[in-house]
């Protein structure tokens, strides 16, 4: 097994493994294999790239990947490495590949001077949660995750803002000597 940064030419293998990832979430992969490879190409090698990926290879077979980005600011004015997806093909699970990818991510974060590595996992994915616990990492209950997607991102839709409720009482009415509001 070897872990390497994704490079141009890896798009077909990544798109294929992402199709398996989609199916593991109960989703149907969208688009043709060629269209999916083009999406990978644009995300990882476009100008500018929107993500990076580490790939775990077993010879010529892509066995797993970790997609990540750098975020700023983190603690103070430092960067953090955000792991978006860690996926190991079903045939390679429980063989130490996930740990290899995580260790490589930790090294990248340290080399880049990041103050932390962060990620999320689905609440209904106890296997992933158990894996992260084996790394000695405990979940953080101090964050709440938000997401806007699909049609809510399209066009010039106004952002819904809450109605502001006054925090202090309404001013008292001022009365003249006859009791008439002035």
Describe this structure in words.
This protein has 182 residues and is an alpha+beta fold. It has helices at residues 11-24, 33-45, 97-111, 126-134; strands at residues 2-5, 52-58, 61-71, 80-88, 116-119. It has one domain: Gcn5-related N-acetyltransferase (GNAT) (Aminopeptidase), CATH 3.40.630. The chain has a 5-stranded mixed sheet with strand order 1-2-3-4-5, sandwiched between helices.
Compact description:
By secondary structure, the chain is α+β, with helices and mostly antiparallel strands. The protein is built from four helices and five strands; from the N terminus they run βααβββαβα. It has a single domain (2-139), classed as Gcn5-related N-acetyltransferase (GNAT) (Aminopeptidase), CATH 3.40.630.
Q: What would the average pLDDT be, to the nearest integer?
A: 89
Q: What is the name of the CATH superfamily?
A: Gcn5-related N-acetyltransferase (GNAT)
Count of folded domains: 1
Give the CA-CA distance, first to last residue.
84 Å
Spatial ordering of strands, largest sheet: 1-2-3-4-5
User: Do you know the CATH architecture?
Assistant: 3-Layer(aba) Sandwich
CATH fold-level assignment: Aminopeptidase
Instruction: Give me the strand/helix succession.
Output: EHHEEEHEH
Global geometry: globular
- Please give the CATH class: Alpha Beta
Helicity, as a percent range: 25-40%
Low-confidence stretches: none
């Amino acid at each position: 097994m070897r872990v390497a940064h994704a490079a141009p030419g890896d798009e077909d293998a990544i798109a294929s493994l992402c199709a398996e990832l989609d199916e593991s979430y109960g989703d149907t992969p969208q688009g043709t294999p060629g269209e999916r490879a083009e999406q990978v190409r644009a995300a990882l090698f476009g100008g500018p790239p929107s993500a990076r990926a580490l790939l775990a290879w077993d010879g010529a077979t892509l066995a797993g990947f970790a997609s990540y980005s750098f975020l700023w600011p983190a603690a103070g004015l430092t960067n953090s490495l955000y792991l978006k997806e860690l996926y190991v093909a079903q045939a390679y699970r429980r063989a130490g590949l996930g740990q290899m990818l995580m260790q490589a991510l930790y090294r990248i974060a340290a080399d880049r001077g990041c103050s932390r590595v962060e990620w999320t996992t689905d609440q209904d994915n106890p296997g992933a949660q158990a894996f992260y616990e084996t790394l000695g990492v405990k979940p953080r209950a101090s964050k709440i995750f938000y997401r806007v997607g699909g049609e809510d991102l399209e066009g010039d839709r106004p952002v819904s803002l809450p109605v502001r409720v006054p925090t202090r009482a309404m001013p008292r009415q001022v009365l003249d000597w006859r009791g008439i509001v002035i």
